[in-house]
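Trying the structure run again after the queue cleared.
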Amino acid sequence: VNETIENLDEAYEKFLRKQVPPIVNFTGTYSEGKPEDVVDGYYGTRLVVPSSGNVISPDDDTHYIELDYQQGLKFNSISITSWFSTSQAPTTFKVQYLDENGEWQYTDGGKTYTLQFKDGSNADETQTLTFDETIQGSALRIHVDGGNLSWGKYVIGEIEVGYEFMDVDPD
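Done. Tokens:
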């Protein structure tokens, strides 16, 4: 019974996530796909970003993928899916969130997160980064600082953000 309840809770949460699709903005150049492909729930669509057309630098705050949920949420993780990931996956990131005052803040004090992709095949591989602390905001910006770029690009199949809905004051 407990397992059934957990499965129902998980299915309901997935249903709710689909009701709150983020608006996706991308400030770089892409060669295939479109920014919205990273949140469409379908692994067959991908955003392909040529590394030569985008400065990948830890000091560059101008290139990012923005997910705007337009409501207050509690964010706790980001999962990124790539394909042929040891050759073309983004691997290092900084993340910002839009706080309740409309100001962009870095998660975990500006920490650089690193994902270790291991699969070199044409299978999709997902890696997850977890924030040190749950953050409250309405949007996220993912700054790709580096990646497995042996093919001169990075590819993102899906981005899934772990979040909870914030309690809403009925007044």
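The longest strand covers residues 124-147. Worth checking whether this holds up in the mutant runs.
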